[in-house]
Amino acid sequence: MSVRKKRLILLAGVAFGALAGLAAYTQQSKPLDPFEEAMRQRQMYLETFGVLPGDLFVEEGKELFYRKGPSGKTLEECDFGKGKGVLEGAYALLPKYFPDTGRVEDLETRVYTCMQRVQGFKPEEIKRDEVRAITTYIASFSSKAKIQVVPKHPQELAMYNLGRELWYTRAGARDMSCAVCHDQHAGQRVRLSPVRSPRQGLGNEWPAYRFEEDKLYTMEDRIDFCYESIAIPKPEFYSDVHIALTLYMLAEATKAGHSFEELPFFTR
Amino acid sequence: MRRKAVLAFGVLLLGLGLSQGPFRARLEAAIQGGGPRFAQVMLSQDKAQALCTQYRDRLPADLVPKFLEEQKALIKYPASGKLMGDWRNGEKVFTDPKRGNCYACHAGDPKEVAHGTMGPSLTGYGQRGQSEAVVRYTYEKIYNAWAFVPCSLMYRGGVHGLFTPEETADLVAFLLDPNSPINRR
């Protein structure tokens, strides 16, 4: 049975349980601690299925990583920042500048451009779900790694400044910016969701499986979710907007000495 | 000495000008790269949003009076003149994520536990009574929060048309009416 099929069966089986759990969760008289609730759900998955949904994305990503593209090459031929085929700790250094493309790339964009340049795929042939799975596979090699995003190259510094400006930009029908919640009100909750600042490690849990949404979210997916929730249409994938914001957040998290969670993480 | 200072000042200004220009262009290019729908919203900031962005939400004191005055001028009132409407409809607008979405930040009806904590709790708000001043303040604050606190997290729901003046009056009733669940014991 293919990984995709296995995943489908697991997710379908679990959807009902998660929904029931969620219903019980929101009807409690006192809100549960969201992290405790996520850990409880995680345990339930492990006990019921012996595997976490995120791990199935890792498995699928691994298959895709070693799949030959039209050029006959696999993604082993792609340099993710530590040399061709080196995955250990690569995610913890990204986004960074890559001389071969001449731009700063986050992991997702790197996968996307390597699938074109190295493997010979056309952009329209690249499915978002595949990039998501490959990203999750590669990120799993930086599980609990110390975040080490330190902009040095002029293009990295420019990207950091861009990210900071976007971070503070107030726009849209809800007058929002990232900063107004994630800096000024960090430590508080939106509805039941705790909100952290980059200095508190914001961004250190993606890619993650979100049981409430029953989906895997990469950093770009999570940024999009934020934008949509503040009435700003989400930017297109692999854009400088995602890369700049990711670089800004992870550079700030680096300054505060944060590490990644177990990747892929399991969260609400 | 003086000429040197003037020269230094000139160079500084030139530097600022040069660094602002290309940075702004680069920012706009990046935003365009996010696609037309994203760019359309991000590049149509109004004057107030641009000021809040520029000053990182801490407006210099000398800009505050004009800012408040301009925001106050944006407040529209129901044609009926009644600033307190129907609390039942107010509750709908308050709760609706596409309109008020107030529970994102505020506690309200004590039965609703899934409320945020970024804004003050509104449970029992009606204790303030229903004097003209309280009603008017509540109405104007809901309609345009920036007419009171520049660049606050609380957004200008009325100004952006997230709710109409009549719906704003309904929200006021939800906060002040003694029969509203916010005020019931």
From TrEMBL, chain A:
InterPro entries assigned? Cyt_c-like_dom, Cyt_c-like_dom_sf, SoxA
For binding heme c 1, which residues are annotated in this chain's numbering?
C78, C114
A GO cellular component annotated for this chain's UniProt record is: cytochrome complex
Name of the top EC class for this enzyme? transferase
Which amino acid positions bind substrate, per UniProt? R222
Listed under GO biological process in this entry are: sulfur oxidation
State the free-text cofactor note.
Binds 2 heme groups per subunit.
Q: Which reaction does it catalyse?
A: L-cysteinyl-[SoxY protein] + thiosulfate + 2 Fe(III)-[cytochrome c] = S-sulfosulfanyl-L-cysteinyl-[SoxY protein] + 2 Fe(II)-[cytochrome c] + 2 H(+); S-sulfanyl-L-cysteinyl-[SoxY protein] + thiosulfate + 2 Fe(III)-[cytochrome c] = S-(2-sulfodisulfanyl)-L-cysteinyl-[SoxY protein] + 2 Fe(II)-[cytochrome c] + 2 H(+)
Which is a Pfam family this sequence falls into? SoxA-TsdA_cyt-c
The UniProt keywords, alphabetically, are: Electron transport, Heme, Iron, Metal-binding, Periplasm, Signal, Transferase, Transport
The protein's location, in the record's own words, is: Periplasm
Q: Give the Cytochrome c domain ranges.
A: 60-147
- Using the UniProt record, give the first listed, main subcellular location: periplasm
Q: Signal peptide location in the record?
A: 1-23
Family per UniProt? Answer: Belongs to the SoxA family.
What is said about its interaction partners and assembly? Heterodimer of SoxA and SoxX.
Name the UniProt record assigns to this protein:
SoxAX cytochrome complex subunit A
Q: Whose protein is this, by species?
A: Thermus arciformis
Q: What is the lineage of its organism?
A: Bacteria, Thermotogati, Deinococcota, Deinococci, Thermales
Automatic annotation (TrEMBL), chain B:
Extract the InterPro entries matched here. Cyt_c-like_dom (IPR009056), Cyt_c-like_dom_sf (IPR036909), Thiosulf_SoxX (IPR030999), Thiosulf_SoxX_II (IPR016823)
Gene3D superfamilies (UniProt xref): Cytochrome c-like domain
Cytochrome c domain residues = 85-179
Task: Provide any one GO MF term from the record.
Answer: electron transfer activity
A family per Pfam: Cytochrom_C
Q: Which UniProt keywords apply?
A: Heme, Iron, Metal-binding
Query: What name appears for this protein in its UniProt entry?
Result: Monoheme cytochrome SoxX (Sulfur oxidation)
